[in-house]
Write a structure and sequence with these properties.
Blueprint (H helix, E strand, L loop, with lengths): L4 E9 L3 E6 L2 E6 L11 E5 L2 E6 L1 H15 L4
Antiparallel strand pairs: 1-2, 1-4, 2-3, 4-5
Length: 74
């Protein structure tokens, strides 16, 4: 199963590399597939690549649902 996770762009560096944050963890991802992404955008990240831009509302709702799933016993 593959999962793309919403993150927020907090810094854009040269060579289409962005720093994103998720639950306080910062990581670098490629913007090669989304050159139009800008600082402050929420993006879906999959295997190190930003693959889609989301609205803040959509990103927060998705993160809320993922958090709820994490609490479910399986």
């Amino acid at each position: 199963m593959c999962l793309a996770v919403p993150t927020k762009i907090v810094k854009i560096e040269k060579d289409q590399i962005a720093e994103v944050v998720l639950s306080g963890v910062r990581m670098k991802v490629s913007l090669a597939l989304l050159p139009e992404a800008k600082l402050g955008d929420y993006v879906l990240v999959h295997v190190g690549y930003a693959i889609n831009i989301l609205s803040e509302e959509e990103a927060k709702e998705t993160l809320k649902l993922l958090s709820e799933l994490e609490k479910q016993p399986f």
